[in-house]
Design a protein that fits this description.
Elements lengths: L26 H26 L4 H37 L3 H17 L1
Helix pairs in contact: 1-2, 2-3
Length: 114
């Protein structure tokens, strides 16, 4: 039996990754995001009803676009909180925590750009 190769374990020194909790949460952002998500839930239920009742495709697509924009708005708020608290905290700590955060931020930006 050959010894197993050691797998690379990602550095999880970012304050946000310890227990996977935010370093801090702005109460206004949290309330706003929760409110947006509740509205989005209603919009998605409305979309389902539109599909079930065979509404005109263009009308459904318009509502899908509306839901996507609402999700982007929630994402922007969450990104702001992440930058103000989690990222700032990790960057202040310096390497290797800062390096891990830079990688995380680049990945987030890349995923949002698609």
């Amino acid at each position: 039996m050959t010894p197993a190769k050691s797998a690379k374990v990602p550095v999880t020194t970012c304050a946000c990754q310890i227990g996977r909790k935010a370093a801090a949460v702005d109460p206004k952002i949290k309330a706003s995001v929760l409110s947006r998500l509740a509205r989005i839930e209603g919009q998605v239920r409305g979309l389902r009803n539109m599909v079930e009742s065979e509404r005109y495709c263009a009308d459904i697509l318009l509502q899908v676009s509306s839901v996507q924009e609402a999700l982007r708005g929630a994402s922007r708020q969450l990104m702001r909180n992440h930058l103000e608290h989690c990222a700032a905290d990790a960057i202040r700590k310096g390497s290797p925590t800062a390096d891990a955060m830079y990688d995380e931020l680049l990945n987030l930006v890349y995923r949002h750009a698609r």
